[in-house]
Every structure is written in structure tokens, then in C-alpha cells.
Design brief:
CATH class of the largest domain: Alpha Beta
Radius of gyration: 22 Å
Number of helices: 11
Number of domains: 2
Strand order of the largest sheet: 3-2-1-4-5-10-11
Structural class: alpha/beta
Largest sheet: 7 strands, mixed
Shape: elongated
Bound molecules: 6-O-phosphono-beta-D-fructofuranose
Strand content: 15-25%
CATH topology of the largest domain: Rossmann fold
CATH architecture of the largest domain: 3-Layer(aba) Sandwich
Order of helices and strands: EHEHEHEHEHEHEHEHEHEEHH
Oligomer: single chain
């Protein structure tokens, strides 16, 4: 193998740049030529790529986002579009691809592998919704960002004796809400993995009030409830003044934590090593070890939610 390429696809996540830097510099150290593909699979089908150098990834280790840019390429499910991508890679003599992204990105890589392109995938999303790995790249930074935001909301919330509903991202996975909620001392966490009805929330709020606790922090994972509707119903049913805050895309930005930088570096180096050995698959981090497995296995693991920690939120709140 002489030539490989790297791309980032789907929602960006902090640590992608640290990972790109490691992929590029390690590949060059091994005598490979490496291309950076712009805007994920979208750039691939438009043949939008450039040869990377040691210098082209200088001073990016601390930056959030991705210097390669990213996109969600809906067309990359169609056979003719994937065939075109394969042709572009073949024309350039690129035999292997490091793809950095979430589950949609992995599915795109599966299609390329079926057509003979070697792919090594790196899990990167703030959602932590690739359950074969304990951590996806960017999740740790996003968790710290949410904790910081909740701390700030807590200040104003305490001053006014208010109940706050803070909405996190998660795309159907409650990990971000759970880990940030636990670390920020939330009173309740509402996640897709555990069914919850509004009356239960009202009961808890009224109990807290009866114990002279006027402030409560409810962390809500996106799309479980409509946040504004929940606020309206809670206020009506409990008579307690509620406010909402939607953290939104702030959760995806910012300088990566040391944990995410190191995760990105280890993921990136391992991905290049596996490609050089002709192995398609996914890197991951499980029980303190870096692992490499198939995409099929990675996508088959459906659940890794920590119900024990979820119960702790209730135990440790009033
Ligand atoms: O997958 C990452 C994520 O940030 C999800 O948490 C969220 O639901 C989604 O992307 C938002 O996507 P977009 O940036 O395309 O609005």
C-alpha cells in the first residue's frame, strides 16, 4: 500500500483534528502518501481532496471542528454514487481510507469495502452512540462542556429559586445527558433509554418543594419530549415556575479535552496500522484497551446504557 486518504463525515466532534494530525503524520512516517478528502463522502464523490504534508496538520491539535470539513451526504446510499467514489479512488491509486465519524459514516465505509476499498473507521461523535466502544471521540469534551453550561445555569437558577430544564443533544442516546447530569448534580435526567411520564416529574418537583428545595435541574436528552411543551405542562401541573435552555451546537464546539486528544491520536495511529496490514474494520476503546473489530460487529451492539448510574441520579438527589 502506497497511497491512502482520510475524511471526516457526519456531525463534527472535538478531537477530530487531533486524530487527523495523528493519521497524517503517522502515515507519512511509514512512507505512505496521504490525501485529505474535504467534506466527507460529499467531497469524495466530487474528487475534492489534497495531498497532506506534515505541515498541513500543524497547530490543529487544540482546535475543535475538523480542518477537513464535514457533511452529511444523503446520496452516499445509492449504488451509482458509491461506484463513482470507488472509481475516483482507483483513478488516484488510493487503496485505503481512514473514515472518521458516526454510525452513518461507518455504513458508507461498509459499501466501499464491499467494492474492494480498504477502510479503517474511527468512531467520532458527541453522542457516544456507537455501543461497541466505551468512548467515541468528542464525547468527553462535550460532556465537560455540558457540565460547565449547567454550572452556569445553576448560578442564575439558584438565585431565582427556579426549576430549569436543560436540553442536551444525543440523537437517541442518553449518555451525554446522563454523564453530564451526574457530574453536574442534576436532580433528574430524562433519557430515551428509560420511559418517564410527566406526572412522575411533577411528583418529584412537588416533593422537592415540600422539602424546601426550590431549585431543581432537569437534564433532558433531545427529542424525548418537546422541551417547551414539557415546561408548559410542568408549570401548569406543579405551579412551579420553570425555565428552559437548549444547549444546541455549543456542545459540538470547543477545544478538545486531553482525553479526547489522546483518544484521537491512539485511534488514528491504530487505524493506519490496521490499513497497512490490510485489515478493514473499526477501532474502539473497551475496558481500558484499544480494540479493532468489524463494522458489522460495531453496528450490531445496540445498547450500553449505564442504568446503575441513572439510578444514582435519583438516589443522590433529594
Ligand atoms: O450526531 C451529532 C449531533 O450533534 C446530534 O446530537 C444531533 O441530533 C445532530 O447531530 C444535529 O445535527 P445537525 O448539526 O445536522 O443539526
Amino acid at each position: 500500500m502506497r497511497k491512502i486518504a482520510v475524511l471526516t463525515s457526519g456531525g463534527d466532534s472535538p478531537g477530530m483534528n487531533s486524530c487527523i494530525r495523528a493519521v497524517v503524520r503517522y502515515a507519512i512516517s511509514q512512507g505512505l502518501e496521504i490525501f485529505g478528502i474535504k467534506r466527507g463522502y460529499q467531497g469524495l464523490i466530487e474528487d475534492d481532496m489534497e495531498l497532506m504534508s506534515i505541515r498541513s496538520v500543524g497547530n490543529i491539535i487544540q482546535q475543535g471542528g475538523t480542518i477537513l470539513k464535514t457533511a452529511r451526504c444523503k446520496e452516499f446510499k445509492q449504488d451509482e454514487v458509491i461506484d463513482k467514489a470507488v472509481q475516483i479512488l482507483r483513478n488516484r491509486g488510493i487503496e485505503g481510507l481512514v473514515v472518521i465519524g458516526g454510525d452513518g459514516t461507518f455504513r458508507g465505509a461498509e459499501r466501499l469495502i464491499e467494492r474492494g476499498i480498504l477502510c479503517a473507521c474511527i468512531p467520532a461523535t458527541i453522542d457516544n452512540n456507537l455501543f461497541y466502544t466505551d468512548y467515541t471521540l468528542g464525547f468527553d469534551t462535550a460532556t465537560n462542556t455540558v457540565v460547565d453550561l449547567i454550572n452556569k445555569v445553576r448560578d442564575t437558577s439558584l438565585s431565582h429559586d427556579r426549576v430549569f430544564i436543560a436540553e442536551t443533544m444525543g440523537a437517541g442516546c442518553g449518555d451525554l445527558a446522563l454523564k453530564a447530569g451526574l457530574a453536574a448534580g442534576a436532580d433528574m435526567v430524562i433519557v430515551p433509554e428509560v420511559s418517564c411520564n410527566v406526572d412522575d416529574i411533577v411528583k418529584k418537583l412537588l416533593y422537592a418543594k415540600s422539602q424546601n428545595k426550590k431549585f431543581s435541574m432537569i437534564v433532558l436528552s433531545e427529542k424525548v419530549f418537546d422541551t417547551n411543551e414539557l415546561k408548559k405542562v410542568l408549570t401548569e401541573k406543579s405551579g412551579i415556575e420553570c425555565r428552559t435552555i437548549v444547549f444546541g451546537h455549543i456542545q459540538r464546539g470547543g477545544s478538545p479535552s486531553a482525553f479526547d486528544r489522546n483518544l484521537g491520536i491512539n485511534f488514528g495511529v491504530r487505524a493506519v496500522q490496521e490499513l497497512m496490514n490490510g485489515n478493514c474494520g473499526v477501532v474502539g476503546y473497551k475496558d481500558g484497551q484499544y480494540i479493532y473489530d468489524t463494522i458489522e460487529f460495531a453496528l450490531s451492539v445496540k445498547q450500553n446504557f449505564n442504568y446503575e448510574e441513572y439510578k444514582l441520579i435519583e438516589t443522590l438527589s433529594i
